[in-house]
């Protein structure tokens, strides 16, 4: 969601197209939560039908910076993560590691 909002101001329908597989309900709930937390601002224009735009706040932009660091870490270590998952799956599927 943050990546979809990061480069500017977006209408609801634009965000829905940018975020593959998200339902209208989930997008609405997520945007409301982000607005409540001060991560995004919601601006409604008096048009028919109403035009609504969402933009990251300064707080939201600072969160994007933190997420970018985590994203970089994940890209750097994706091979190790994939190996660890495969090892775990092999152990649990063979029944050697019963919990």
Question: What Rg do the Cα atoms give?
Answer: 19 Å
Shape: elongated
End-to-end separation in angstroms reads: 35 Å
- Fill in the CATH topology: Arc Repressor Mutant, subunit A
Tally of separate helices: 5
Order of helices and strands: HEHHEEHH
- Residue stretches low in confidence (pLDDT < 50, at least 5 long) are none
Percentage beta strand: 15-25%
Can you tell me the CATH superfamily? Winged helix-like DNA-binding domain superfamily/Winged helix DNA-binding domain
Protein name: Putative HTH-type transcriptional regulator YtcD
Pfam family, one: HxlR
Keywords: DNA-binding, Transcription, Transcription regulation
Domain HTH hxlR-type: 1-82
Q: Which tags fit this structure?
A:
Putative HTH-type transcriptional regulator YtcD; 5 helices; WH_DNA-bd_sf; about 100 residues; three-stranded antiparallel β-sheet; HTH_HxlR; DNA binding; elongated; Arc Repressor Mutant, subunit A; alpha+beta; about 15% strand
């Amino acid at each position: 969601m943050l990546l979809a909002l990061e480069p500017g101001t977006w209408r609801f329908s634009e965000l829905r197209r940018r975020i593959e597989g998200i339902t209208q309900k989930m997008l609405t709930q997520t945007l409301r939560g982000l607005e409540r937390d001060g991560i995004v601002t919601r601006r409604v224009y008096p048009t028919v039908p109403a035009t609504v735009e969402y933009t990251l706040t300064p707080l939201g932009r600072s969160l994007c910076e933190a997420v970018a660091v985590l994203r970089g870490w994940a890209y750097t270590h994706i091979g190790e993560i994939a190996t660890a998952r495969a090892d775990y799956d092999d152990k649990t599927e063979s029944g050697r590691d019963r919990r």
